[in-house]
């Protein structure tokens, strides 16, 4: 598969998983977390498919497209290791959905970050919250959810925190 095909499939998988996560949370109360704002593409998609939901976006710096920059009250800037442990005080209520898009070109570092991030996010998620991630996560109490049709195993990940 060419790198172009691979990139397209990854983006299609990401979109399908965001939309599956949005359906799964339904009316579950709580804000949404975009962990890895980056260019703001998936933040923009989340706000389009879940209009009216409050979204907090995290990144070490704001470098998103100008149309996709959250307001200052919803931009959580800094290293995840510093910001995630303080999230609950900021959110006001536990989150209903977290999208973690944190991978880099360094596969080992990406896996290590995700291995820390899952358990660190768990306390800020409401029971029944949905997590979708570009990296695998293994968190006690999180159920692995079936991927949407057309998304190959291991291309993206979908979890639900137990009730
Ligand atoms: C793949 S990009 C996110 C792309 C974005 N979701 C989009 O659709 O445009 C990953 C982002 O995670 C951020 N990131 C990675 N590790 C981080 C860390 N330890 N603390 C804060 N931000 C981090 C990077 O700065 C980068 O912007």
Task: Record the SSE blueprint.
Elements: H1 3-25, E1 32-35, H2 41-49, E2 55-59, E3 75-77, H3 80-83, H4 87-91, E4 95-100, H5 107-121, E5 125-133, E6 142-144, E7 157-161
Parallel strand pairs: 1-2, 1-4, 2-3, 4-5
Antiparallel strand pairs: 5-7, 6-7
Helix pairs in contact: 1-2
Bound molecules: S-adenosylmethionine (SAM).
Question: Could you describe the 3D structure shown?
Answer:
By secondary structure, the protein is α/β, with parallel strands linked by helices. It has one domain: Rossmann fold (3-Layer(aba) Sandwich). Helices cover 34% and strands 21% of the residues. A seven-stranded mixed sheet has the order 3-2-1-4-5-7-6, with helices on one face. β1, α2 and β2 form a beta-alpha-beta unit. The termini are far apart. It binds S-adenosylmethionine. The site of S-adenosylmethionine (SAM) has 14 residues, from α2.
């Amino acid at each position: 598969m060419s790198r172009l095909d691979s990139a397209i499939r990854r983006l299609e998988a990401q979109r399908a998983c965001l939309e599956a996560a949005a359906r799964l949370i339904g009316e579950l109360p709580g804000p949404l977390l975009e962990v890895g704002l980056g260019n703001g593409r998936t933040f923009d998609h989340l706000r389009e498919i879940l209009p009216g939901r409050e979204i907090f976006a995290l990144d070490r710096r704001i470098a998103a497209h100008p149309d996709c920059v959250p307001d200052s009250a919803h931009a959580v800037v800094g290293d995840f290791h510093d910001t995630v442990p303080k999230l609950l005080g900021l959110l006001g209520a536990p989150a209903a959905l977290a999208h973690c898009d944190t991978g880099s070109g360094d596969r080992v570092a990406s896996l290590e970050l995700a291995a820390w991030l899952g358990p660190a996010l768990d306390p800020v998620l409401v029971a029944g919250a949905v997590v979708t991630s570009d990296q695998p996560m293994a968190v006690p109490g999180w159920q692995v959810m079936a991927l949407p049709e057309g998304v190959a195993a291991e291309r993206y990940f979908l979890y639900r925190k137990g009730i």
